[in-house]
Design a protein that fits this description.
Radius of gyration: 32 Å
Number of helices: 10
Low-confidence stretches: 1-20, 413-418
Order of helices and strands: HHHHHHEHEEHEEHHEE
Mean pLDDT: 77
Distance between the termini: 80 Å
Structural class: alpha+beta
Strand order of the largest sheet: 2-4-5-7-6
């Protein structure tokens, strides 16, 4: 060992002195890069963010407003065909001017977007102009409901095509917005990793001790965790905005159309009550969506509260059956209460009714005519009771079972525009009681959901 010591010790200082200039050069490069790269990347991120805020997002909002303008124009044309009131033409022309202004604003906004977006907007503007120009001849020639009936089918078809083109434009603009957000996230990730790489380079050049290196890695991990949490927050916000904008737009359009009808047309009492009922029903739908969103937020935040007491299972199941009796008759599905145990169950009455109602609503939507939906209750053991909802519907695939309780998830074939929150709420309600949800399903045969609760 002595010869080895004698050989290696003189070489260490020489290697250190030889590498010192290179280390200093690397440190200098790293320091310059640490100063310059964040500025460049920060400017890039700010530019992308400004583009989203000032151009892409306003363009998306303007495209959504086009659909609303077209719906209002269609309502005015329909009112004219029904009543022959030529004063409606004044309001129609005023709204057309507003729509032209919106097209001009949107044309300015999409200049920075893909050529496909600009071409779609140009085609939509041209189709809209032809559509409205055709209405001018209707206003000039049609006089009363009998003359307008012959034109309604053609007008309705043109309106549906225009709405489809408007929705397609909105979709491609939203794609531009999503791409801008992805680019922003990519640049931010690049900024993080570049900073990490340059920091490690500088620290490695200075031969920092292992403890400092360990601390840097811990800081990096914490930064990644925070960034992941931020991305998750942004993703959840985008999901909520997407769902709310989609699920509130239809009832909001119905409310707006019914309100315009009430304001603009001299209706008899029965028709006014019908329009008011439409408004109330749409408002109730929007209210339910908002309450579901709040419940999901409370569940995820751990702030969902239940107040259990001893309840009879039969009374709860019969209450849910009564809630959906009319709905089941309209769907031509038998809704029954099967065998129910007579032991008291520890539950929050309103919340368990809410969970069962969500399950029955799903069962009715996926059970064909002539099917059966059954509510039942049974004792599992000395501690637990199961309240069940069974159906003879389409059943669930394995993929559906894997995603069943995810927020905003919807099964294939569900075309009723639901937000996909019902089963997530069911799971949160039952787990808040200290219970669990069990599912049995066979594709093409049916499904059974068991809400396992504690005996009182």
């Amino acid at each position: 060992m002595i010869p080895s010591d004698t050989i290696t010790r003189p070489d260490l200082p020489r290697r250190t002195r030889t590498r010192a200039p290179w280390a200093l050069a690397l440190v200098s490069v790293a320091l310059v890069a640490l100063a310059a790269v964040p500025i460049y990347v920060g400017e890039r991120v700010a530019s992308l963010q400004d583009q989203i805020t000032e151009t892409l997002q306003p363009a998306l909002e303007s495209a959504a407003r086009l659909s609303l303008y077209q719906s209002r124009q269609m309502a005015r044309l329909q009112s004219f065909l029904l009543t022959g009131d030529r004063t409606i033409r004044i309001r129609y022309n005023a709204a057309s001017a507003e729509e032209d202004s919106l097209y001009n604003d949107l044309s300015d906004l999409v200049r920075v977007m893909d050529l496909d977006v600009r071409e779609r907007l140009a085609r939509l503007s041209s189709e809209s102009t032809r559509w409205r120009f055709g209405h001018l001849s209707i206003f000039g020639e049609v006089a009363g409901p009998e003359a307008g009936d012959a034109l309604w089918t053609q007008v309705q078809g043109e309106y549906d095509e225009l709405q489809s083109a408007t929705r397609e434009l909105e979709r491609v603009i939203k794609g531009e917005v999503d791409q801008g957000r992805r680019d922003t996230r990519w640049w931010r990730t690049m900024q993080t990793w570049i900073m990490i790489g340059l920091s490690i380079l500088a620290l490695g050049s200075l031969l920092v001790i292992a403890r400092v290196s360990w601390r840097v890695r811990r800081l990096v991990t914490e930064a990644e965790r925070r960034e992941d949490a931020l991305h998750q927050t942004v993703k959840q916000r985008d999901e909520v905005v997407s769902i709310v904008s989609h699920d509130l737009r239809n009832p909001l359009g119905v409310v707006a159309g019914a309100a315009d009808t009430l304001i603009e047309l001299p209706l008899d009492r029965e028709e006014r009550e019908r329009q008011a009922t439409i408004i109330a029903r749409s408002a109730s739908r929007m209210s339910r969506l908002i309450e579901d969103l709040l419940d999901v937020s409370r569940i995820e935040a751990g702030a969902f509260v239940v107040r259990p007491s001893a309840e009879e299972a039969i009374s709860v199941l019969e209450e849910v059956r009564d809630m959906f009796e009319v709905h089941a008759e309209e769907a031509q599905v038998a809704l029954t209460v099967g065998p129910v145990c007579d032991v008291p169950v520890r539950m929050d009455h309103d919340r368990v009714v809410q969970a069962l109602a969500n399950l029955v609503d799903n069962a009715l939507r996926f059970t064909p005519e002539g099917g059966v939906v059954t509510l039942s209750g049974e004792v599992l053991d000395q501690e637990r009771v199961s309240l069940s909802v069974s159906d003879t519907g389409v059943g669930l695939t394995q993929d559906a079972l894997d995603n069943l309780f995810s927020r905003f998830w919807q099964a294939e074939g569900d075309k009723k525009g639901r937000a996909g929150l019902g089963l997530a709420i069911v799971k949160g309600v039952i787990e808040a009681h200290g219970g669990e949800v069990q599912v049995e399903s066979d594709p093409g045969i049916g499904s059974t959901f068991h809400l396992v609760l504690h005996r009182a």
